[in-house]
Amino acid sequence: MAKKTNEHTPKLLVRQATPADVPALVDLTARVYTPEWGHAAEMLRSQQTHFPEGQFVVEYEGQIVGYCATFRIDEATALAPHTWMQITGGGMASRHKPDGNWLYGMEVVVHPDYRGMRIGQRLYHARKQLCSDLKLRGIVFGGRIPGLAKNMQRYGSAEAYVQAVVEGKRRDLTLSFQLSNDFEVIGVIRGYVPSDYESLGYAAHLVWRNPRLLNQPDIPSIPTPQRLPDSVRVASVQYQQRRIKSFDEFATQVEYFTDIAADYSADFVTFPELITLQLLSIENAELSPVESIRKLSQYTPQVKELFSRLAVHYNINIVAGSHPTEQANGDIHNVCYVCLRDGSIHEREKIHPTPSERTVWNIIGGDSAATVQTDCGPIGVMICYDSEFPEVARHLTDQGALILFVPFCTDVREGYLRVRYCSQARAIENQCYVVLSGNVGNLPGVNNFDIQYGQSCILTPSDFPFARDGIAADSQPNIETVLFADLRLESLARARNAGAVQNLKDRRFDLYETRWMTKRDSQS
């Protein structure tokens, strides 16, 4: 009778190395490097003594077929030129620093009879997981370039050969594998392992940056002195416009939705563009379009006081839609008041009034787009039509914004879809979150505000860490409701550093640029 096997027992196991593994590791390294260059038992024990959690083995059907060794090191040492013997302390990992912010990969060994089973890839994954768990900046090491000796005459230098491999013009057995595992070359190290004749003693200086960290140098910096939360809860109010009799009635409706968002522990609640046009139904007077907008602007002090008070009282950051506001020179701008829970008020103007806003209401566009610093990191505001201009979102993202809020007001489905499709594009190309909030309902008798079509939503980039369709939350069209979504900021860092596409990193600064001008620049 055949012996029964336990189907739940894994054949292949990646685990932390133990002292009992040392004899098997001596044999494995001797098999790979020859007995002369294999690792001594003292060396292997020293590695485990200094940093036990950084040593891994792959066990297949009870036999150790793979092994890797790591230790922690400070950034200055790790990124400076060095040799393998210097940085590893002769292979003992004696330069391990318990507070080091980089993980140094000093060794990866795979049994030659088991190559093709992605043993090396599994070991790299274990390293990356350790790096992420410890919240280190990344992994760094010197990688062999075994094709160099055979091609040195053709390329003339180690640097030229490595560049050819990076550009995909030449395949190197080891370096190409490293690149396929998301490592990047930051230089070439001379004399790294003098006895590595295939590499002529050179090594590619390689790094993998931890995508869970938001402060990597290759994504826009996030200028905030506070540690960012892992997750931000946002609420979007799909607000029904209805006739009211007083400002207090308007305030009651706004407070109701703010209270709801706060009850669900939201960090932000956003309202639609031109939400305050509802106030024109109070007097129910026959006014020209321009007169109605100037009349509405008289409510500006009350609007600012209301939203600021609610933000503090309910401990929530409010993106207060937008409100037509008269400027000191008499111009009317469409202004979004961002009222933070610390009591501060920030004004962000619509930059691109629609043709209808310009001709019917005589609204003038603003001339700046700056982020707002919040306790959840920098945010950006694009009011409706602004979302259809990619330069605005890129400018905000380059300032560090991770979430863009789009209060909108559209009358028909075609207009709404322009805002939605463009906002989805902004989320993808900037690898950020975009929150839309729109009006529904009708206000008979209010000029240029006859009908509304709205379908508020919360959009994400389109990649594996995010919602399946790039939509974190969606609403039914033209029904008053509130949407909620938890947005993980670390997912943006992962996508920007190691996503299927990396739009921010892959921009061609050698070909094009976006320059944001001030009024002074445009007039000079």
Automatic annotation (TrEMBL):
Q: Which InterPro entries match?
A: Acyl_CoA_acyltransferase, C-N_Hydrolase, C-N_Hydrolase_sf, GNAT_dom
Query: Ranges for the CN hydrolase domain?
Result: 232-489
Record domain N-acetyltransferase: where = 12-213
* Domain of life assignment: Bacteria
Q: Known PANTHER family for this protein?
A: HYDROLASE YHCX, NITRILASE-RELATED
Q: What is this protein called?
A: GNAT family N-acetyltransferase
